């Protein structure tokens, strides 16, 4: 599993770019430099690198699935195996009650789980960021109202709310994404609000305001770039919980029945009596896949936090 | 008795999750079964779906489980015979019809008593039927029987005389309607508000002792039951949220009987030498149905069904490619029989066997039918075009997103139908919206399930033109807006045929026509898979030649159960039988022994798997902790 992804590829641009260029190129040079800096620090986080390696491998496996597996085996009419066969050299993870290979199901299930996890996390973090920034920037009654809304979503049990939403909207991939996003943005909003307030207290924002910068300019040009690292770390961690939420909802039978998400595979296993039959090969692979991906995203997210938070980084 | 479609299983799972979260483990554990200290014996039945029932009013019963309780507590006038569903004496020891076939006389069994000692009289039956006629709620359940009674008389305690305007075969079996005690129910102000308070006198083998909604139902045996008491003292129905949980309970000996198993669960239970698995034909079937053109009685069309499906050639062509045996083998693991028409094969008197007339599984035959019917043009994608409407033969196939079996079956259907150059577009939908769409005629092809019978009039009525709606509004009273004058005539003929043989003939003819016409394709009749502890024996099957134990339209299943040790004692003078039983048990034991290696293998595998999982999880956690702790140290 030690396929380190090309460490040196991004760090070449730390060279001094002293020749005078347009402001845009200066900004970009600065960003490249800080990215390289970030990468240099990130590389020292061994757990983060492991998480990243796992993610790269899983992404490759998922993207390349059509080239090394036969998707038609997931069609019940083409199932190649027998009924709940235990693992063999032909079917590494055995087969389900129709004879479909579990391995193929899990590989193709990654598409659904990752897709739902990533999209829902991006949606949730975007929503949380917008609300958090608005609350911090405008203050007053807007802040009060937005924060009460946030509090409300924080105290609501998110799984129950997500279940209710999916039932009300009718199960589909889109519904699940919306339900997860709507139930998990609140934490990010609080975090972003606090950080935005800290950033807005800095002198250069006062300067920008004195120079006549409007709300939009302040937000997009000064606050957001400073927030981005935090938002990215938060989003990475959010993917983990979104994947778990998707698996929970699918296991409860609220997923898209025509797709094989990991939670959906677990649901099929449960319905088919895999527990009674002792068909561990039907339940462990999707379970471990969820574990692995969630672990990888968590490791990456924590490593990013350490890199971005000087207090966690210490005196290296 | 047809049944309401059970709600999606996942709500139960949700409830299970909620219960599991809300209650400590101890609170949901189940009391032990079998003999208690005082020597009384208890049969504990695990029930999934017990929390479906809203109450236990015997006259307002829409769930199969509710029907089971009714059968155990209230005898009907006439029972479904255990041999072959031929009507058999219940509270009425005999009955006859007048020559003009309009007057029925029932003779109440003089031995029949209520559990409080009062005799069961003709007045009780008269009271019950009149209550069903006048009470609006009860009438909505039982109107089809009682509304045709023009007069109900009880000239003496033992005689009930019913007259009708038209001859009607339903009076030959009374459809298993329970009779209530007039001396108690006559005193009730609002009988439809009775929800299952214990202590009511009953005419059946059991009395209600406890009804805890969603948890359990306890019935105590009536030791003085007029038709011979049961061989044990108490019958408990314990609710389980999922069959998997109930299987574990059966393995642990917490319950004695469980129905509704799938092949894998049955396979696991067969490994247990203390448990017997019973696989027998049932009255349940799965089908796909075609929108026959939603329309009112006057012919006003509504809905958005594909016009080509009104052509029998298209439906028959599809019927030709559906390999029902393959579905039985793959989906049911062989635990079922290929479907024919609406009547399940266990109703031997009424079942129509297609024999030579069966649709041959052949894409060539299907394609030939379509070619001959003029579907020769094809789109660029190679899909046949309906010459009349110009539409390609591309049909929406609605299936229930909460029934995993349908998701598997539709894979097969799409593939098979593609051989006819017809396209199916599978669309998963929730049960409720799906039913709304099909009721409104907004579908092409839809999945469905049904519990047939035993009375043919009730179920086959869904195929008559009379069930078309008056207004272009949604209706669930018709099977796909089917209407065929020939079927209508035969339906009326069987309804009025007081001679059982004549009736059977008409019922079979209806099936033959409907099978040929194919407004629906019955995919298969699935078997009932049930399992019970070897502490018990004698469970009565319906029909006795091989049928389900649970979900009967009679009390035989549970009422005939006998504790195994009691059975051993009493079989002393019946050597042959006992030896036969022992042989069976021995054979089972051998099976279990022979396959115990496999069992061990899978257990080892399971343990290995769990260990690997544990290592991965613990490893991950330790790794994280270490990172975290070193981060703190470094600070």
Low-pLDDT runs of chain B: 1-33, 572-602, 629-635
Q: Low-confidence stretches of chain A at least 5 residues in length (pLDDT < 50)?
A: 1-14
Number of discrete helical segments of chain B: 19
| Average pLDDT level of chain A | 86
Q: Quick one: how many beta strands of chain B?
A: 19
Distance between the termini of chain A: 27 Å
Write the CATH fold name of the largest domain in chain B.
Dipeptide-binding Protein, domain 3
Ends apart, CA distance between termini of chain B? 74 Å
Pfam families (chain B): SBP_bac_5
Keywords (chain B): Membrane, Signal, Transmembrane, Transmembrane helix, Transport
Subcellular location (chain B): Cell envelope
Protein name (chain B): ABC transporter substrate-binding protein
Describe the structure in your own words.
The complex is a heterodimer of chains A (316) and B (635). The model of chain A is unreliable at 1-14 (pLDDT under 50). Chain A has 14 helices and no strands. Chain A is mostly helical and 316 residues long. In chain A, α2 (46-63) packs across α4, α4 packs across α8 (186-200) and α5 packs antiparallel against α8 (186-200). Chain B has helices spanning 9-22, 64-73, 122-134, 136-146, 182-185, 243-252, 263-270, 312-321, 324-331, 363-372, 404-418, 431-439, 456-460, 485-496, 500-517, 556-559, 564-570, 575-594, 596-634, and strands spanning 42-48, 78-80, 87-89, 92-97, 103-108, 149-156, 159-164, 206-212, 216-221, 234-240, 257-258, 275-290, 336-338, 394-400, 423-429, 445-451, 520-533, 536-537, 562-563. In chain B, β6 (149-156) and β7 (159-164) form a beta hairpin. The relative contact order of chain B is 0.13. At the A-B interface, α11, α12 and α13 of A face α1, α6, α7, α11 and β15 of B.
């Amino acid at each position: 599993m030690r396929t380190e992804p090309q460490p040196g590829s991004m760090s070449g641009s730390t060279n001094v770019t002293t020749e005078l260029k347009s402001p845009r190129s200066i900004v970009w040079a600065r960003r490249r430099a800080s990215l390289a800096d970030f990468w240099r620090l990130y590389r020292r986080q061994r757990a983060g690198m492991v998480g990243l390696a796992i993610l790269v491998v899983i992404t490759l496996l998922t993207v390349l699935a059509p080239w090394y597996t036969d998707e038609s085996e997931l069609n019940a009419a083409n199932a190649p195996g027998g009924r709940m066969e235990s693992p063999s050299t032909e079917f590494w993870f055995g087969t389900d009650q129709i004879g479909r290979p579990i391995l193929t199901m899990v590989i193709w299930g990654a598409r659904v789980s990752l897709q739902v996890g990533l999209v829902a996390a991006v949606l949730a973090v975007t929503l949380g960021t917008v609300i958090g920034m608005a609350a911090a920037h405008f203050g007053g009654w807007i802040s009060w109202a937005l924060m009460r809304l946030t509090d409300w979503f924080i105290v609501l049990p998110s799984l129950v709310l997500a279940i209710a939403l999916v039932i009300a909207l009718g199960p589909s991939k889109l519904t699940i994404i919306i339900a997860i996003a709507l139930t998990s943005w609140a934490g990010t909003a609080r975090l972003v609000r606090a950080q935005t307030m800290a950033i807005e207290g800095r002198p250069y924002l006062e300067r920008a305001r004195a120079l006549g910068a409007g709300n939009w300019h302040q937000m997009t040009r000064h606050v957001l770039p400073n927030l981005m690292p935090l938002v990215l770390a938060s989003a990475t961690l959010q993917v983990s919980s979104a994947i778990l939420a998707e698996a929970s909802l699918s296991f409860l039978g609220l997923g898209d029945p025509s797709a094989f998400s990991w939670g959906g595979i677990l649901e099929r296993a449960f319905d088919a009596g895999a527990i009674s039959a002792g068909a561990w090969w039907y339940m462990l692979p999707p379970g471990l896949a969820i574990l692995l991906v969630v672990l990888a995203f968590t490791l990456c997210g924590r490593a990013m936090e350490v890199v971005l938070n000087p207090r966690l980084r210490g005196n290296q | 008795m047809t049944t309401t479609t059970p709600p999606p299983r996942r709500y139960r799972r949700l409830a299970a999750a909620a219960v599991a979260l809300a209650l400590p483990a101890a609170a949901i554990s189940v009391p032990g079964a079998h003999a208690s200290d005082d020597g009384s014996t208890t049969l504990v039945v695990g029930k999934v779906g017990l929390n479906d029932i809203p109450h236990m009013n015997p006259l307002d019963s829409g769930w199969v489980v509710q029907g089971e309780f009714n059968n155990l507590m209230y005898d009907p006038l006439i029972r479904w015979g255990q041999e072959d569903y031929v009507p058999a004496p219940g509270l009425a020891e005999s009955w006859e019809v007048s020559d003009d076939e309009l007057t029925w006389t029932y003779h109440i069994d003089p031995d029949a008593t209520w559990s409080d000692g009062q005799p069961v009289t003709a007045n009780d039956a008269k009271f019950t039927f009149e209550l069903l006629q006048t009470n609006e709620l009860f009438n909505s359940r039982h109107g089809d029987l009682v509304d045709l009674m023009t007069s109900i008389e009880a000239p003496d305690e033992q005689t009930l005389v019913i007259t009708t305007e038209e001859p009607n075969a339903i009076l030959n079996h009374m459809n298993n309607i329970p009779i209530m005690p007039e001396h108690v129910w006559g005193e009730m102000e609002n009988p439809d508000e009775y929800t299952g308070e214990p202590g009511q006198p009953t005419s059946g083998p059991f009395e209600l002792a406890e009804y805890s909604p969603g948890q359990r139902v306890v019935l105590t045996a009536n030791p003085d039951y007029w038709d011979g008491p049961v061989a044990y003292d108490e019958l408990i129905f314990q609710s389980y949220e999922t069959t998997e949980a109930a299987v574990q309970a059966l393995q642990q000996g917490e319950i004695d009987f469980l129905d509704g198993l799938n092949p894998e669960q049955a396979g696991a239970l067969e490994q247990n030498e203390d448990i017997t698995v019973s696989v027998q034909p049932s009255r349940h079937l799965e089908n796909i149905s075609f929108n026959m053109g939603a329309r009112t009685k006057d012919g006003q069309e509504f809905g958005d069904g594909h016009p080509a499906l009104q052509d029998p050639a298209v439906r028959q062509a599809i019927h030709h490619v559906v390999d029902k045996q393959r579905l039985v083998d793959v989906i049911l693991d062989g635990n079922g029989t290929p479907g024919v028409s609406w009547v399940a094969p266990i109703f031997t008197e009424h079942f129509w066997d297609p024999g030579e007339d069966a649709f041959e599984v052949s894409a060539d035959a299907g394609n030939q039918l379509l070619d001959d019917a003029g579907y020769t043009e094809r789109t660029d994608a190679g899909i046949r075009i309906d010459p009349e409407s110009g539409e390609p033969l591309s049909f929406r196939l609605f299936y229930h997103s909460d029934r995993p079996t349908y998701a598997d079956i539709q894979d097969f259907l799409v593939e098979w139908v593609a051989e006819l150059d017809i396209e199916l577009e599978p669309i998963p939908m929730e049960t409720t919206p799906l039913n709304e769409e099909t009721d409104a005629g907004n579908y092409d092809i839809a999945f469905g399930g049904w519990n047939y019978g035993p009375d043919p009039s009730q179920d086959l009525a869904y195929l008559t033109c009379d069930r078309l709606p008056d207004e272009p509004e949604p209706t669930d009273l018709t099977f796909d807006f089917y209407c065929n004058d020939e079927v209508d005539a035969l339906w009326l003929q069987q309804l009025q045929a007081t001679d059982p043989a004549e009736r059977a003939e008409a019922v079979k003819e209806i099936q033959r026509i409907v099978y040929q016409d194919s407004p629906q394709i019955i995919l298969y009749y699935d078997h009932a898979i049930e399992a019970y502890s070897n502490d018990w024996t004698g469970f009565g099957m319906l029909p006795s030649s091989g049928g389900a134990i649970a979900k009967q339209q009679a009390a035989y299943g549970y009422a005939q159960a006998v504790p195994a040790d009691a059975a051993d004692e009493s079989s002393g003078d019946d050597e042959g039988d006992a030896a036969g039983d022992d042989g069976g048990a021995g054979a089972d034991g051998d099976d279990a022994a022979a396959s115990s290696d496999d069992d061990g293998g899978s257990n080892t595998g399971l343990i290995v798997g769990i260990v690997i999982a544990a290592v991965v999880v613990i490893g991950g956690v330790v790794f994280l902790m270490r990172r975290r702790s070193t981060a703190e140290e470094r600070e």
